[in-house]
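Work Package 3 (structural annotation) set out to generate three-dimensional models for the target panel prioritized at the project kickoff. During this period the team completed the workflow that converts sequence records into discrete structure tokens, so that structures can be stored uniformly alongside our sequence database. As a representative example, we reproduce one entry of 220 residues exactly as it appears in the project archive.
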Amino acid sequence: MAEPITPIRASTQVFTEIVDIDRDLVMFADGSVSLVIATTAVNFGLLSEKEQDAIIYAYAGLLNSLSFPIQILIQTKHKDISAYLKLLEDQEARQKNPKLTKSIHGYRLFVASMVKEKDVLDKKFYIVLPFSSVELGVSSTLLFGPKKGGLPYEKSYIYDRAQTVLLPKRDHLVRLLARVGLHAVQLNSDALVKLFFSMYNPGNPPPDVTMLSLGKESNV
């Protein structure tokens, strides 16, 4: 007789090893911390050859000037434009000018046909600045094994050390990105919660962040 299958009850929090999100930073179970920067993008294909060369040289200079590691994350999702099509349909119905009605109708059909022929994608770009638990130094926890909770130091101390190391790197990177023509901003705690929720719960609307507590056991 086959043994009954035991359902997996581990939460996503355990899977991702995130123990807390606070001070606009993400803390992991081993004491490492990450700072996430959202940045705009450049439509490279629409630039002239001279502009493309300038962007390439500026980006190469950015990478060569870095003295610390970074992680680049590109999040791609299928974009739902049904709400936009409904808006166009409503605008078409309210128009009293026949020419405008015809124009909106033609545009709405064009957009709908484009969506059927090609996937409409929404891309978001992030740069992650990591802070390793090694940068905290050696603690009794590392020497004699992890204590309950697994963190080598108290959360407040880890956050203080991480901010001291990461914030100057953030400011330096934001300045470099501005030279390439990119606008960058650090994600705050609320945005981080929504980002991780959307990654592991695709298709579901993000919850009210006040209802989540990543520092406690959660099924998120």
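Confidence is low (pLDDT under 50) at residues 210-220.
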